[in-house]
Amino acid sequence: MRLDSCRQFAANEQLVLEVVGEYGLREFLGRLWPANAEGSERCDICYAWRLAETARRASEGGYAGFSTTLLVSPYQRHEHIVRIAEDAGRSFGVPLVYADWRPGFRQARAESRAAGLYHQAYCGCLFSEAERFGDKSSK
């Protein structure tokens, strides 16, 4: 539903959207299990993997920079995201285009609801989903 909503928004705004066809569940779990990662460490591992992939794609595509929608959420670890994204950018020779979008979070959320776009109440990983829907044993 989140991807469908993203596609709808991109079409409405006449934006080019590049979609990677695979979530990478097995790789995600493989990155977490050897480290026995929990909580914020789990998030940092995920941020590092996802942001490095974004920076790599930006570099290979010849883009002047890259960013992430993670920077809009007041529920994410903002400072960690910025540090990790800047590191990924240096590794791939493409800078993070930084903006702190959190002050506009509530207004953007209201506007997207008015446009009928889907809102997911968790980050997207299985652990976050379990925590969101009541399984506290995933912490």
How many individual domains?
A: 1
List the uncertain runs.
Answer: none
Largest sheet, in brief, is:
none
Structural class: mainly alpha
The number of strands is: 0
Entry summary:
The protein is an all-alpha fold and 139 residues long. It is built from 6 helices and no strands.
Structure characterization notes:
With 139 residues, this protein is mainly α. It has one domain (2-16, 23-138). The chain is built from six helices and no strands. The two termini are 25 Å apart.
SSE layout:
Blueprint: H1 2-13, H2 25-32, H3 39-60, H4 78-92, H5 105-114, H6 126-132
Helix pairs in contact: 3-4
Defining key terms:
139 residues, mainly alpha, 53% helix
